[in-house]
C-alpha cells in the first residue's frame, strides 16, 4: 500500500463474554470519501481483524440492522459517512441501553418482546370485508398512520432515550409508535387491547417527552409525537373509565 | 426437551435473573451500557430539555414568593410593605428575572410542542404547525396584557 | 388503583380506573402547563417592574390597592387557580426530573412529597385568600 493513502482511525468497542478482551481496539482504515462507517467495518473484518462481530444487511438504510453508537450518538452505520468525521478518530460502540452480546452486537430480544406486547398487527373486528374483497382505505385514512408505519425497528430511538436508559422496563418509542400505527389504521379494531398495554405502568407514562427519539430516527417516524398522542388517548380512556365504569365480567 | 442453550428470562421481563437450561436462576452478567445519570450533558438537545424541566423549579420558587406576598398582605400593612421592599431588593429582583426567563422558556417550549401532541390532518397532510401555534401565542399576549393592565394600572 | 365498594349489591361494579393512575397526574400536569404558560410570565413581570425603580409599578403594589384588587372573589379564585395549577404542574415535572437524574428516591415517596407539597402550598394560598 502506498504511503499516500489517507488514514482514519476507528476505535471500536470489543467484548466477549467470559474473556478478558473488553475495551477498545484501534484500527487504521483507509479513508475514502464515498465510504460509510459500515464500509470501514467491513474493511476491518475482511483485511485486518476477522473476529470483529457486528450486524448489517441492506447497507442502504431500510433494514435497521446496523445501528451502533458512533461518537456517542446512535446512528445507522450504513448512513454515517466517514467524511463527516475525517480526520478525527471515530468511536464505534454497541447501541446503548441494550445488553451487549459480543463486540457491537446487542440483544434485541427485549425489544422484540416489548414490540410483541403491543400487538403490532391488524386485529380484525366488525369491519372485516367478505373474503373476496379487500379492505378499502382512502388516501386520507392512510395519511393518518403512514408516518408511523415507516419504522424499520432499528431501535436507535431506544438508545437515544434517557428513560429507556433509566428504566429498562419502559416499552419504548418504537413500540408505542407502532401501537399508534395500528390504532390509527382504519382497518384495525384492536385499539382497546393496545390501550391496556399502553396505559399500564411501563407504557406511555414513563415518557417525559425528551424528544431525542425523533431526532435520531433515520426514517422520520417521529415517535415522540406518537407517544404524546398515545398519552392523550390513554388519559381520555382513563377519564372515561372513571366516569363510565365497566361492569365486571 | 428441546430448549435452545440460551438462558431464558424468568417471570420478570427485564430482571437480571435468567433461567438457564437446567431451570436454575443465573445472573445475566452481560454489560448494559446506558446513557448514565448525566445524559443531559450529552448534547445541546438533551441540555435544552433539561433546562425545560428546570423551569418548574423556578416557577415553584416564584410561586412561593407570591404566596409569601399574599401572606404578608394577610398579616398587615407594615409586614406587607416590608415584604415588598424585600421583593424589590437587588438579589431578589435578579432571581425573579431568572424566574421570568425560565417561565418564558416554559411558555415557548410548551406552545411549540403542542402540535406534536395534537395532530390534525387536513386531507392527507397535517395542518401547518403555525395554524395551531399562532393562536396560542396570540392568546398568551392577550391574556398577559390584560393581567398586567389589571395589576399595574 | 381505587376499589370503591359502597354496598354488597354493587359487587358487580368495580370502580377501578383503567390503566395506571399516572394518567390522572398527567392530565393535571397538562392543564397546569397551559395555565403556567399563559399566565406565569405576566405575573412575574408585574412584581419585577417595581424592582427597577418604576414609580407607577411600586404604587400599583401599595397595600390598599392590592388589598382592594383581591377583595373581589373572582380575583381570588383566579389567582388561586393560577397558583394551584402551576404548582401541580411544576410538582409533576420536578418529580420526573428527580427520577430522570437517578436521584435515588423511591417512586411512591417522590410522588407523595411532590404532590402533597404542591397541594399543601395551594391549600395555604387558599386559606390566606379566603380570609384576606
According to CATH, the fold-level topology of the largest domain in chain A is: Fumarate Reductase Iron-sulfur Protein, Chain B, domain 2
Please give the alpha-carbon distance between the first and last residues of chain A: 76 Å
Strand order of the largest sheet of chain A: 2-1-5-3-4
**Which chains make the largest contact?**
B-C, 54 and 51 residues
Q: What portion of residues of chain B belong to β-strands? A: 5-15%
Give structural notes.
The complex is a heterotrimer of chains A (249), B (153) and C (132). Chain A is built from nine helices and seven strands; from the N terminus they run E-E-H-E-E-E-E-E-H-H-H-H-H-H-H-H. Chain A is α+β, with helices and mostly antiparallel strands. A five-stranded mixed β-sheet of chain A has the order 2-1-5-3-4. In chain A, strands 6-7 form a two-stranded antiparallel sheet. In chain A, strand 3 and strand 4 form a beta hairpin. The longest helix of chain A is centred in the last third of the chain and has 21 residues. Chain B is mainly α. Among the domains of chain B are: 33 residues, no CATH class; 59 residues. Chain B contains four helices and five strands, in the order βββαααββα. By secondary structure, chain C is mostly helical. The chains are: A alpha+beta (249), B mainly alpha (153), C mainly alpha (132). Chains A and C meet through helix 5, helix 7 and helix 9 of A and helix 1 and helix 4 of C.
Supply database-style keywords.
heterotrimer, A: 249 residues, alpha+beta, Ubiquitin-like (UB roll), Fumarate Reductase Iron-sulfur Protein, Chain B, domain 2, 2 domains, 5-stranded mixed β-sheet, two-stranded antiparallel ribbon, 9 helices, elongated, B: 153 residues, mainly alpha, 3-stranded antiparallel β-sheet, 5 strands, 62% helix, 8% strand, disordered N terminus
Amino acid at each position: 500500500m502506498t504511503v499516500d493513502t489517507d488514514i482514519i482511525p476507528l476505535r471500536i468497542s470489543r467484548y466477549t463474554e467470559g474473556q478478558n478482551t473488553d475495551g477498545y481496539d484501534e484500527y487504521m482504515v483507509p479513508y475514502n470519501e464515498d465510504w460509510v462507517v459500515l464500509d470501514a467495518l467491513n474493511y476491518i473484518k475482511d483485511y485486518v481483524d476477522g473476529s470483529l462481530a457486528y450486524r448489517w444487511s441492506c447497507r442502504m438504510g431500510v433494514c435497521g440492522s446496523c445501528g451502533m453508537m458512533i461518537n456517542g450518538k446512535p446512528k445507522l452505520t450504513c448512513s454515517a459517512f466517514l467524511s463527516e468525521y475525517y480526520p478525527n478518530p471515530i468511536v464505534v460502540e454497541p447501541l446503548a441501553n441494550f445488553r451487549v452480546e459480543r463486540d457491537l452486537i446487542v440483544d434485541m430480544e427485549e425489544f422484540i418482546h416489548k414490540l410483541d406486547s403491543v400487538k403490532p398487527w391488524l386485529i380484525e373486528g366488525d369491519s372485516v370485508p367478505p373474503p373476496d374483497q379487500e379492505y378499502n382505505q382512502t388516501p386520507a385514512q392512510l395519511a393518518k398512520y403512514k408516518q408511523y408505519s415507516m419504522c424499520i425497528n432499528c431501535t436507535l430511538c431506544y438508545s437515544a432515550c434517557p428513560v429507556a436508559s433509566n428504566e429498562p422496563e419502559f416499552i419504548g418509542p418504537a413500540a408505542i409508535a407502532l401501537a399508534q400505527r395500528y390504532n390509527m389504521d382504519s382497518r384495525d379494531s384492536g385499539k382497546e387491547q393496545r390501550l391496556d398495554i399502553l396505559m399500564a405502568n411501563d407504557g406511555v407514562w414513563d415518557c417525559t417527552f425528551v424528544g431525542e427519539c425523533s431526532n435520531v430516527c433515520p426514517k422520520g417516524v417521529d415517535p415522540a409525537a406518537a407517544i404524546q398522542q398515545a398519552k392523550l388517548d390513554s388519559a381520555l380512556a382513563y377519564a372515561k373509565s372513571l366516569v363510565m365504569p365497566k361492569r365486571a365480567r | 426437551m428441546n430448549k435452545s442453550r440460551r438462558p431464558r428470562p424468568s417471570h420478570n421481563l427485564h430482571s437480571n435473573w435468567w433461567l438457564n437450561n437446567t431451570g436454575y436462576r443465573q445472573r445475566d452478567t452481560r454489560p448494559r451500557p446506558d446513557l448514565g445519570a448525566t445524559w443531559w450533558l450529552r448534547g445541546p438537545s438533551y441540555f435544552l430539555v433539561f433546562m425545560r424541566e428546570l423551569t418548574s423549579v423556578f416557577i415553584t420558587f416564584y410561586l412561593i414568593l407570591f404566596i409569601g406576598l399574599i401572606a404578608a398582605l394577610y398579616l398587615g400593612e407594615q409586614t406587607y410593605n416590608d415584604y415588598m421592599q424585600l421583593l424589590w431588593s437587588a438579589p431578589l429582583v435578579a432571581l425573579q428575572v431568572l424566574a421570568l426567563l425560565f417561565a418564558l422558556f416554559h411558555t415557548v417550549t410548551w406552545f411549540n410542542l403542542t402540535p406534536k401532541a395534537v395532530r390534525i390532518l387536513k386531507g392527507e397532510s397535517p395542518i401547518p404547525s403555525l395554524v395551531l401555534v399562532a393562536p396560542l401565542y396570540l392568546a398568551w399576549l392577550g391574556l398577559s396584557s390584560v393581567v398586567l393592565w389589571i395589576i399595574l394600572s | 388503583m381505587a376499589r370503591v365498594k359502597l354496598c354488597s349489591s354493587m359487587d358487580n361494579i368495580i370502580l377501578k380506573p383503567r390503566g395506571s393512575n399516572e394518567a390522572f397526574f398527567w392530565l393535571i400536569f397538562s392543564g397546569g402547563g397551559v395555565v403556567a404558560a399563559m399566565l406565569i410570565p405576566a405575573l412575574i413581570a408585574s412584581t419585577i417592574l417595581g424592582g427597577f425603580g418604576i414609580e407607577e409599578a411600586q404604587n400599583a403594589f401599595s397595600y390598599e390597592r392590592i388589598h382592594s384588587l383581591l377583595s373581589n372573589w373572582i380575583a381570588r379564585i383566579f389567582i388561586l387557580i393560577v397558583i394551584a395549577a402551576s404548582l401541580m404542574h411544576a410538582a409533576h415535572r420536578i418529580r420526573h426530573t428527580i427520577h430522570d437524574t437517578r436521584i435515588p428516591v423511591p417512586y411512591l415517596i417522590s410522588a407523595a412529597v411532590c404532590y402533597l407539597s404542591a397541594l399543601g402550598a395551594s391549600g395555604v394560598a387558599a386559606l390566606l385568600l379566603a380570609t384576606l
